[in-house]
Design a protein that fits this description.
The chain has helices at about 5-15, 55-65, 100-110, 150-155; strands at about 20-25, 30-35, 40, 45-50, 70-75, 85-95, 120-130. It is of the alpha+beta class.
Length: about 160
């Protein structure tokens, strides 16, 4: 069912101050990034996302992901600045039932103005290694070094 996740990713996901971003694609393939503080793991190892707006572009894109068997990307940055990425596939959208009601009641207790639209269950599929310096190419080993002309001019 689900992929074995890095314990560091699981710990980062559990931190309330971690930044959790979901990347989906619109109908025309345009990528969309949305920060979701509600993202967490359930006891089965699935990612759970609580969506409060059924008309939100991210919610529509998740529906499209189920219909057309598309993957999404999850990016988490923990409080220590480490980055983690996981690919996933939406498995199920809950809009009623006991599991939905459990999340609905908890959300109402924490923040009464919010309403719960959908409880998304997402199967994590492919964890990705993110280099410590995630802005580097990560694949420079065995390649000729690249030197930019502006750096040569300064020397």
């Amino acid at each position: 069912m689900t992929t074995q996740l890095d314990p560091r990713f699981v710990a980062a996901l559990a931190q309330p101050d971690s930044i959790k971003i979901i990347a989906t694609a619109d109908a025309d393939g345009t990528p969309r990034l949305v920060e979701h503080d509600s993202l967490h793991l359930d006891d089965d190892g699935r990612l759970v996302l609580l969506e409060t707006d059924e008309h939100a572009p991210g919610n529509r894109n998740l529906v499209r992901s189920i219909w057309f068997d598309r993957k999404i990307a999850i990016h988490v940055r923990d409080t220590a600045g480490r980055h983690f990425r996981v690919l996933g596939k939406p498995y199920k959208a809950l809009i009623a039932g006991p599991r939905f009601e459990l999340h609905y009641r908890r959300l109402q207790a924490e923040n009464p103005p919010l309403a719960l639209s959908t409880v998304w269950l997402i199967d994590p599929q492919a964890p990705e290694d993110v280099p410590q310096d995630h802005h580097s190419s990560g694949g420079a080993a065995g390649r000729l070094p690249l030197i930019h002309l502006d750096r040569l001019a300064r020397q």
